[in-house]
């Protein structure tokens, strides 16, 4: 399954200052990775979780408050929940997956309650479990991962996957940044939970999310899906990292003269904000929040106010400048394509969950941000961990396998030296940040960007890492570059506007394009349509609608 | 971005070095940690939550460093404010139990 024409050198027995043998290797310690580790350990597997940052603080969830798609076991309530994003998502979600995620999220939330997560209680005495406070949630998850017997390696990013002679994924190599030591993990199966790609935009918690897992997967031949749904932008004060779209439901948006901008809004009116920001600053004021709403906001996300308090801004009275920060596939829905209920990818031994995997299955083309992504992380993580544990039982003895290194781009041994990852980061950002290129896309600008992005790829393709210290940033930069190419090639192929995939030159929905776009490849990026699994009762639904 | 490690408050426990997801801090043998890679700070405020002595101050400006004085009004007024708001630390209760997101979600859209 390795990429054609790429060298995948044999792993030497002496490789890695730290050598690890484990049934399941989980790469990424956000919510999906934590649930994967716990589920794999519960099946009796030995589990190692490697995290680029610190499991508990790293990723988009830890520093935020997030909604949770938690719906009681009530048929009518669940049908309503499923319908809420189905049309907005361009009918690309699948009912069977939505049902499974709702049920697994319900079960995992029961577990969280038993573990002592302090869900709030409403005035009627009912537990309310439709949101999670990131710091509290992820501190608890770290504790539970440890209690499960899984081993956590913090500050230990993976740099490449390892495959056996059949092409099955059988581990990874990486580096521990605090010591500078290299590590090699031989594993029976690998779960990728590295999150999405937000292109180092400094959106809250997102700078560790650089598409690393997409690159790791693509290098062993894994496929991606929905990469055109990758242009989510978070709304927040222009000076701040804190994006919190929900609160801007109570905002009015103004120009610099204090005149309200017609049609501007947090959800449906965000296109107006994006368009206006191309020519002039936009200001917001949460002047539609009454005293009760204001008090609730304080307890719904405390760090929203940390930003304002410390700048001496009263967000309920003052007009403050806002910006849209690219959150890419973190709030988009594209990611690694999964082909089984256990979140297996198309490559044996490789599983994907959370934002690293596609979320089209439950939200189609509409944002997965907030509640759906949180539900998907805990559900898909749980399934992927269990699936990987089962797969590892069937894998042959780790010691007997000869392993190959699949990592290629940007860290080739003996490759072209001396390139600057920071320069590549800026070059990719210049193509994906501008609203006029990415918020609403058009063929000529996509092709224009792709020409430069492809040229960058050709340049760094055979490069070696500038230094061991810079190997991590080099791989992040290359992952961002690869992500941008899958994203824009998929966007070019979708000649319609569906969900967040907006085309200026194809403004309407085309009923003939109700399919997924699966993509992959490194030197040659390919994109192909794939049919969406139809619900059995589709005709009945249509009649009822 | 992270601006201050207070020499007066910091006990040199180095928890921030571990807790920071982007490796901004560096251990200084025999001393308190230093801000070694400020430009990698993603302004997530997590270090403030994990600091047991409220010795860290993150300015809310995400894209560039700013000048704040440890003895200035801004820092004196707000250092430790986030950990207090989240209810972490000795003799405090996590405010997650008061999370009113459900009230907002019911009324949004």
Q: Which labels suit this protein?
A:
heterodimer, A: 545 residues, alpha/beta, FAD/NAD(P)-binding domain, Flavocytochrome C3, Chain A, domain 1, Methane Monooxygenase Hydroxylase, Chain G, domain 1, 8-stranded mixed sheet, 4-stranded antiparallel sheet, 16 helices, 35% helix, globular, disordered N terminus, disordered C terminus, B: 109 residues, alpha+beta, Alpha-Beta Plaits, two-stranded antiparallel sheet, 4 strands, 27% helix, 10% strand
Give a verbal description of the structure.
Chain A is an alpha/beta fold and 545 residues long. Helices cover 35% and strands 17% of the residues of chain A. In chain A, helix 1 packs parallel to helix 4, helix 3 crosses helix 11 (371-394) and helix 12 (421-432) packs parallel to helix 15. The two termini of chain A are 44 Å apart. By secondary structure, chain B is α+β, with helices and mostly antiparallel strands. Chain B has one domain: Alpha-Beta Plaits, CATH 3.30.70.20. In chain B, 39% of the residues are buried. At the A-B interface, helix 4, helix 7 and helix 8 of A face helix 1, helix 2, helix 4 and helix 5 of B.
Question: How helix-rich are the residues of chain A, as a percent range?
Answer: 25-40%
Q: What is the strand arrangement across the widest sheet of chain B?
A: 1-4
Q: Would you identify the regions of chain A where 5 or more consecutive residues have pLDDT less than 50?
A: 1-6, 538-545
Work out the largest interface and the residue count of each chain.
Answer: A-B, 61 and 42 residues
**What's the architecture of chain B in CATH terms?**
2-Layer Sandwich
Question: What is the CA-atom radius of gyration of chain A, in angstroms?
Answer: 22 Å
Number of strands of chain B: 4
Number of helices of chain A: 16
> Rounded to an integer, what's the Rg of chain B over CA atoms?
15 Å
In this structure, how is the largest beta sheet of chain A organized? Answer: 8 strands, mixed
Number of domains of chain B: 1
Corresponding CATH architecture of the largest domain in chain A: 3-Layer(bba) Sandwich
Contiguous low-pLDDT stretches of chain B (5 residues minimum) are none
What would you call the shape of chain A?
A: globular
Oligomeric state: heterodimer
**Structural class from helices and strands of chain A?**
alpha/beta
CATH topology of the largest domain in chain A: FAD/NAD(P)-binding domain
Q: Please, how many helices of chain B?
A: 5
